[in-house]
Amino acid sequence: MRTELTTGQRVARARRRLGWDQAQMAAAVDRSISWVSKIETGRLPLDRMSVLGQLAEVLGVEVVELTGQPYRHDSAELDSGHAAIPGLRLALQQATMPGGAALITTTALPTLPDLTARVEAAESLRQDAKFTALGDVLPQILRDLVVLCDVAEGDDVSRAEALMLRASHMARVSSNLLGHHDLGWSAVQRELVAAEKAGSPVLQAAARWDLCGVWLHEGELGAARDMARKALDDLEPHLSTNDQTVRALWGAMHLRAAVAWSRLWDRTEAESHLTEARQASAGVSEDGNVFQTQFNAVNTEIHSVEVSLELGHPRDVLSRAELVNIARIASGERQSHFWVCTAAGQMMNGKPALAADAILRADTIAPQHVRNRPIARNLVDDLRSTDRHSRSGEIRRLAASMKLS
Fold it and tell me: Mind listing the GO molecular function terms for this protein (predicted)?
């Protein structure tokens, strides 16, 4: 027996709590009664965050109520950093409260060179989607940065705050992946403070890029869209400096805007922002990763696949996926994301065998990333219930590890 509700069952539960029948639900989302029935019974997969966000909005619930996050796994490795959440929560509380450094006991003051090296090592874990290993080191990095930022003077203030922003970003990514969106918000708040203390428009743009990420995870699409728009307006005057960091952040913000607009089902705006991002990517390094944005030409095209998926254009998903040279991006997290989007596109095109190949490939690359993503879990659940592919055994084992069967 499966050990948790399906996403469709959670939708039905939220609908019944409102006192709605399926006809009222269908009217609220401008769909047919048949569509609602298929969603609730699992005959139609919820394979797009745009649809999940719309359902959450009309039902008056948070997205996590429909996704069932946070998920807990049976092994420490696949639990993906959940064990670190209490320590991460405390570290973020100390980082965001006035006078938080006074609550941290330390025998030796941390140094900038040491923390720089530790942040860089942690960023490698984040890009490889090794969230258990990241959780082992990140809370202490944050606590040491709280102390360092408190004692820093002169030019060291901006350097320490930049490190705090980078560490807080990793806390934001981990928290959102695991479904602890309140912690994601705390982390990005500290990023915004870091940018203000450093007095840096570049850090401000990096923090706003991450703020858009929080709102996208929470399904606050209008807020994400509006922040991306404001951030782009504020960055534009700095483009004349030809600073590569500014150009990369400019492009990365266009990608955030493209995703937001695609989830609002506005193809014109989404494609316009993709075009701007492509133009910006031509002027940055092929392996660009400014402030962990992974902004480069390959990631721009990965976003184009995601945009087509969210817009509900399955043929475009596959035609665009064919153009992505995925081996050219070093991030395991980005590679896995690409294969999850491709798997969803294959299912939308009625090709479960190719979808199974893609989702299993994503899981091989970054299992901690895949097994905590609602869309990936819905895909696995859908593939588990069909025999129209030759990898049923592998899919069933993956579903069991996700507690879907």
Answer: DNA binding
Of 314, 313, 338, the residue nearest 325 (C-alpha): 338
> Is residue 298 a contact partner of residue 329, using CB atoms and an 8 Å limit?
yes
Determine the pLDDT at residue 290.
95
pTM of the model: 0.91
The domain over range 1-69 is classified in CATH as 1.10.260.40: yes
Closest CA to 68 of 371, 312, 384, 383: 371
Half-sphere exposure of 375 (CA within 13 A, CB side): 28
Q: Name the token pair of 117.
A: 């090296």
**pLDDT tens, 95-137?**
999 888 888 887 788 899 999 999 999 999 999 999 999 999 9
Other beta carbons less than 10 A from residue 268's beta carbon: 7
Q: What angle do CA 316, 214, 165 make, to 5 degrees?
A: 120
Q: What confidence tens digit (pLDDT) does each residue in 231-281 have? A: 999 999 999 988 999 999 999 999 999 999 999 999 999 999 999 999 999
Fold of 201-327: 1.25.40
Delimiting residues of CATH 1.10.260.40 domain(s) in the chain: 1-69
- The string of pLDDT tens digits covering residues 166-177 is 999 999 999 999
Residue 34 tokens, joined: 């048949």
The whole-angstrom separation of Cα 225 and Cα 220 is 9
Q: What sign has the CA pseudo-torsion 90, 91, 93, 99?
A: positive
- Name the burial class of residue 227, with classes exposed (0-12), middle (13-18) and buried (19+) by CB atoms within 10 angstroms of its CB: buried
Q: Encoding tokens for residue 112?
A: 């900038």
Rounded to whole angstroms, how far apart are CA atoms 40 and 34?
10
Q: How many CB atoms lie within 10 A of CB 109?
A: 10
Task: State the number of CA atoms in the 13 A half-sphere of 126 facing the CB.
Answer: 25
